[in-house]
Amino acid sequence: MCERIPIQQQLISCHWVRKWKFVENLIAWRLVVACIMLVVILHQPSPISATCRKQDVNSCEAICVPVTGGTTWGENITTAVDTPLEWRCELRIIVIMPTNTSIEASLPRVHPVLMKAEEEIRARQIIPPSVAIRWIFYDDQCDQARATVSAMDGTGRDCGHVILGPTCDYALAPVARIGRFIYNDGIPVITGAGYTFDFVQNKTRCEDEFFMLIRTGWLSFKRIAYFMIDLLKQ
Ligand SMILES: *[C@@H]1O[C@H](CO)[C@@H](O)[C@H](O)[C@H]1NC(C)=O
Ligand SMILES: *[C@@H]1O[C@H](CO)[C@@H](O)[C@H](O)[C@H]1NC(C)=O
Ligand SMILES: *[C@@H]1O[C@H](CO)[C@@H](O)[C@H](O)[C@H]1NC(C)=O
Predict the structure, then answer these.
(1) In angstroms, rounded to a whole number, what is the distance separating the alpha carbons of residues 137 and 96?
(2) What are the boundaries of the signal sequence (predicted)?
(3) Which residue minimizes the CA distance to atom 1 of ligand 2?
């Protein structure tokens, strides 16, 4: 009776059970409790809140927006209630990287890998096929200021959902620092670089400088140094 069906229907069916209780016995009561618990449990995975700076949620932050009958949606969303709503979903990924190929992790080198990754994501259906992926590229020239501005444009103007971070440590630092204060929930900054000592510190609380930074490796210059020392000791 209370399977995985839309929550409104669930509430209705639970409501019916609740009415039933008065004419029936203890079993009905238990069903009510079970229904209520199910509703609570289904509600439980509330959106993860990483709010380090409380802000109004911008409507463009949503991955899926309702579209009515092929026209773009304006202010009057209420007028669309009786027409079936369609959804347009788009995941916007900001890539901040230098284009100069004399830098190891540069855009021309990384671009084919990203496309390959998208192919893989599609093939394994990691995200639903109806969700489009839009890559938004910024050249930071390994420069702190350019990287910061790219992150601000990428979120403020292009309304990106995730930043594939700068690969130069100096450019990564400011982007990873402001990541926690962009949007209400912060924006994840994912990078394969970030070997400097500071990036390795704990990132579990808002006070941690690089709270929204996700490094894809365990390696850091410090660990490499210790590794070399251990190697020389052998
Ligand atoms: C929105 O609805 C109101 C009231 O029905 C109407 O006056 C207004 O023109 C509508 N606006 C748009 C953009 O359709
Ligand atoms: C790329 O970087 C190298 C080394 O820093 C520099 O010599 C070269 O001029 C740069 N190329 C461009 C197109 O900026
Ligand atoms: C990181 O957190 C762990 C567990 O809370 C703690 O043991 C460790 O000392 C912390 N490291 C730093 C550098 O603060």
Answers:
(1) 6
(2) none
(3) 100
